[in-house]
Design goal:
Distance between the termini: 10 Å
Low-confidence stretches: none
Number of strands: 0
Number of domains: 1
Radius of gyration: 15 Å
Mean pLDDT: 90
Number of helices: 4
Largest sheet: none
Helix content: over 70%
Structural class: mainly alpha
Oligomer: single chain
Strand content: under 5%
């Protein structure tokens, strides 16, 4: 998981925040796509790619945080 360690915090954090909240009006895509997923209406390939695109930086941020807090000393 050296590739995850190589991603700088100063790049990952703003990208995760920006893509998680973009577009700012009327509703962030991530919130819309997660609502569609919970209602079972996430069917179009574009919507699935959009969920992946907006959610990936947040997942990477979470993985990097967990790796830094719990597993960094063991590497």
């Amino acid at each position: 998981m050296q590739w995850l360690d190589a991603i700088p915090w100063l790049i990952l954090l703003p990208v995760a925040i920006f893509l998680g909240l973009a577009p700012f009006t009327p509703e962030p895509h991530l919130a819309e796509k997660l609502r569609m997923l919970s209602h079972g209406t996430l069917h179009r390939p574009l919507d699935i790619v959009d969920l992946f695109y907006h959610g990936l930086p947040i997942l990477l941020l979470g993985a990097k945080t967990i790796r830094t807090l719990f597993f960094k000393d063991k590497a």
